[in-house]
Amino acid sequence: MGFILSIVFPIILKSFVPQGASVLGLFLAGFVVGLMVKGGALEGFWNATVAGAFGGIILTILLSIFGALIGGIFGFFIGLFSGIMVVIVLLLVSMIFMGIGGAIGGFLAGD
């Protein structure tokens, strides 16, 4: 759910807030994930971070598959390496933007 919201919210907000729509969209997606988890700030932070990084994990798998189809074993390793770098970057970005929103949402809805 958080992965889908992290895609949908920035697209919707782009027409209302042209500058910073992606950051605000990621924050709101993390906030919703934190509200859904209802486990406190730390659990909201963690779940929002994982939801944000899920897109990078899917991209890594796709890059590896298409790399193997196009370039054989060498293309597979190139796709895998570049995909792992994408996961690391998306994990950091989602920790900052989605994680903070998730922590706030988890804190507000926490048990």
Describe what you observe in this structure:
Helices cover 88% and strands 0% of the residues. The chain is mainly α and 111 residues long. The protein contains 3 helices and no strands. It has helices at residues 2-13, 21-37, 41-109.
Structural topology:
Blueprint: H1 2-13, H2 21-37, H3 41-109
Name a few traits of the molecule:
111 residues, elongated, 3 helices, 88% helix, single chain, mainly alpha
Number of beta strands: 0
Multimeric organization? single chain
Cα end-to-end separation: 21 Å
Structural class label: mainly alpha
Low-confidence spans: pLDDT under 50, at least 5 residues?
none
How large is the radius of gyration? 16 Å
Mean pLDDT score: 85
Order of helices and strands: HHH
Determine the strand fraction and express it as a percent band: under 5%
The residue fraction in helices comes out at: over 70%
Largest sheet: none
Global geometry: elongated
Sum this structure up briefly.
With 111 residues, the protein is mostly helical.
